[in-house]
Amino acid sequence: MSQIPPPPTNLRGAVDLSSLVNRPATPAAGGAGAPADAGEALALPSLFFEGTDANFNDFIDLSMRVPVVVDLAAAWAEPSAQLSPVLERVVAQLAGRVVLVKVDVGANPQLAQAFQAQSVPAAAALVGGRPVQLFAGALPEEQIRDVLDQLLQLAAQNGVTGTVAVDGEAGPAAEGEQAEAAPEPLPPHHAEAYEAIERGDYATAIQEYKTAIAQDPRDAMAVAGLAQVSLLARLAGKTLDAIRSAAAADPADPSAQLDVADLDLSGGHVEDAFDRLLTLFPTLDAAGKETVRTRLLDYFEIVGVEDPRVAKARARLTSLLY
Prior knowledge:
It contains 13 helices and seven strands. By secondary structure, it is α/β, with parallel strands linked by helices. It has two domains: 18-166, Glutaredoxin; 188-321, Serine Threonine Protein Phosphatase 5, Tetratricopeptide repeat (Alpha Horseshoe). The strands form two sheets. The chain has a five-stranded mixed beta sheet with strand order 2-4-3-5-6, sandwiched between helices. Strands 1-7 form a two-stranded parallel ribbon. A hairpin with a 2-residue loop joins strand 5 (122-127) and strand 6 (130-136). Helix 7 packs antiparallel against helix 8 (220-235) and helix 10 (254-266) runs antiparallel to helix 11. The longest helix has 18 residues, at 286-303. It starts with 17 loop residues before the first helix and ends with a helix.
């Protein structure tokens, strides 16, 4: 039985996208699937696209001609805000040899599951219609450039050597230019927490976020970061099979149901996680209800308090409380 680690930080271990590959083709999104003659640069409106469960088949088709880098991000994950602009900058510097597709894993659970996005941010790729895991976390720009160089080598070995000619604006930056100014450095305790997460030291990350909150109770990013790293700490060392089996064997066991809700949320199944705990809530004693209420509040911070799924779940929780 496999553990629940972040995606591997290399070019091995492809995930299964067969459910997407086998879907009927749909019209190209923004020209992403536009045909071109062999050896001719593809004319696209940009090097940068938004990927969704509905349009991703277009990018699978596109990857038959040019490698597609996939930025698996989430608005509630602070490191995503650090990684995305760096990925954009590196892709722009490659001058049409790859394109970048950004996927909001919270809004696109099918893609989150297909790419096994157990943590965000993460980067994957499509080469010749086949998925490749690249790395997890907001790596330094030099390391990202090295990974994409390896990706281009892998693509060449598989005959995927096309290029893109941008018609008009080239997205966040023109070819060879910076995508945007370098992101602002993280506050000290946030930076320490993120470095601790990268090395798997969740206890230290939790303490750093708690310190940041103690210094500024209005630090919303620290509150969300604490909720996210607490989720990672709870899942560390557990297995997918063990979590699912325990919950199925005893649906009334609050601990087992909390574990599987954590698993659902980490995989992007936000509504499933909310529904599981809200269904469990009325069956519990006062202490159990408080545990579930607190866990749901953490989930709301992770997903984002403005997310409509959070508003719906919060209303349901309120009705249960009163």
